[in-house]
Amino acid sequence: MTKGRDALLWLADALAGAMLVVLTALTFIDVVGRNIFDQPLIGSNELTEYSLALVTFLAYPVVAWKRQHIVVDLFDGISPRWLITLEKIVSDFLGAALFCILSYRLWLQALRLESYGDLTPQLSIPIFYAYFFMSVMSGVTALTFVLSAFAHRANEVSSEHVLDEVV
Amino acid sequence: MLAAGIGFLAAFALIFLRTPVAVALALVGFGGYWALLGLPQAMTMTALTASGHTLSYSLSVIPLFVLMGNLICGAGISSDLYRAAEAFVGRYRGGLAMATIGASGGFAAVSGSSVATAVTIGKIAIPSMRSFGYSNELNTATVASGATLGILVPPSVIMVIYGVQTETNIGMLFAAGIIPGLFGILGYALAVAWVASRNPAAAPSGRPSTMTQKLSALRRTWLVAALFIVVLGGIYGGLFTATEAGGIGATGAFVIALIRGVKLPAFAEILRDSAHTTGMLFALVIGASVFGEFINLTGADKSLLAFITESGFSATGTLLTILLIYLLLGCVLESLAMILLTLPIFFPIVMGLGYDPVWFGIVVVMMVELALITPPLGMNLFVVRAIAPDVPLGTIMRGIVPFVTVDIMRVGLMVLFPIIVTWLPSLLFD
């Protein structure tokens, strides 16, 4: 169980990290191609958008599981432990609710886009794939939030550590 | 107006009850829409906001600048910057503290994060200042305040997010940050000089350097200078957009990391951290945008603006009130949360009063800088405490007072003379 979970987390990280490299390379090749060889990268904009969807929606379950979202822990010093635990559990369910809504609505959007047959302008990639992906990963994220609420973890990442990385 | 008020209260309540800021803002926005327009509309708006902000070319700038900053942090260039600054000003009284400020400014030129600047510079500068007998008050406060330059000197992740949320030109914001950033370096150096003059024992002079040493130390920082010039020069020279500059910067930072011998496992770690930060930031931007949609729907910004103009409040008075609110919020809220929560209401008001969006962006960033070092919740104070665990928080807070003072004076200067902020961007873009 733990092994499978860690493997999934590792996989999501590896894919998201790889997409970041792709994202960087897309911009670099496009800019160099346009300025030096007078030949911009065809479809770089739509590929960038697709990569963004992959990076962020692969990261959401991981960030949810590791409780890395920014929280304000102003009252942690004066709150009893049970209250903090309760707050964390309630927050996890709120997060799950949000991503359920997203998953449901993005699925409907995906179905509609599939029926319209919308394609990206330059490379003619069907747009609905991205929506199905976002919908499925939202569902996975919602599930992760629920699992996170029930998981008892002794040494989880503290929020101070999380804040370190943002601004 | 009432709906928006309830929305803000609900958002605050959720945030202080430890709900992730992104989730709190999105759910309140969703709930507000539901209450005003109905459930299907609320669900559609939320999903459209999420997909629209994800499949968005212009937002690719966020992960790219995050990645650039993380690569630069991993490349270990902070010691070179510090040595170079030390070679030039180290022999003066308080010189090592001034060198710390200078190195922070230099690091900020290739990194968009204040906390990253505090960590990387602090690890080098604090042990060095200690070995020369600098007081803990001064060395921790110097690192904490110098690091705030990370978000003012371009590139800056906070500016990018401000630009995205308010549709302000990111290239202009970057340009506008340069001169206030230099004022910041100058102001902090003055604060150091003031401390040194009052208590010479707290800030002794370091060792002198010969001209050869100075030049060789300076030469070692060329990679940083080159990256800064390529990224900013490319934007202003019209070679690429501010969005693309992120990709160029990340590529450059990748090359620097390779040159500096960063190994594969470290790269994997950097990519992973960057992906997580990207997820966090996108969740925040989406949550804040959903909240913003709701605030827009209530028209609270317009009614508030109408109220302000009709009741004869002066523009200056309103602006000062907003700055005061930022100062207070900065004491209790995380800085990104503070910006994203307040922009939907403050930005239209400030624009309605006729202020410049680029100028307001810089002022907001400076308020965040101030929030980062203002007790009790200044993030940088805690970061520095993490680097120097033996220094009590109380000592750091005492030391920070002169730096907070010059920061407030600097904000005042930018408010009184907006031209300091707007001159460079108007020169480069008009």
What does this structure look like?
The complex is a heterodimer of chains A (167) and B (430). Helix content of chain A is 72%, strand content 0%. Chain A has 167 residues and is an all-alpha fold. Chain A has one domain. In chain A, helix 1 packs antiparallel against helix 2 (44-65) and helix 2 (44-65) packs parallel to helix 4. Residues 154-167 of chain A have low confidence and may be disordered. Chain B is mainly alpha-helical and 430 residues long. Chain B has one domain. Chain B has 21 helices and no strands. In chain B, helix 4 packs parallel to helix 13, helix 7 (114-131) packs antiparallel against helix 8 and helix 16 packs parallel to helix 18. Chains A and B meet through helix 1, helix 2, helix 3, helix 4 and helix 5 of A and helix 1, helix 2, helix 3, helix 4 and helix 7 of B.
Features:
heterodimer; A: 167 residues; mainly alpha; 72% helix; disordered C terminus; B: 430 residues
Quick structural overview:
The complex is a heterodimer of chains A (167) and B (430). With 167 residues, chain A is mainly α.
Beta fraction of the residues of chain B? under 5%
The secondary-structure class of chain B comes to: mainly alpha
Outline of chain B: globular
Which whole number gives the mean pLDDT of chain A?
85
- How many helical elements of chain B? 21
Mean pLDDT rating of chain B: 89
Radius of gyration of chain A: 19 Å
Order of helices and strands of chain A: HHHHH
Separation of termini of chain B? 38 Å
- The poorly predicted ranges of chain B are none
Helix count, DSSP H or I runs of 4 or more residues of chain A? 5
Which bin fits the share of residues in helices of chain B? over 70%
End-to-end Cα distance of chain A, whole Å, is: 35 Å
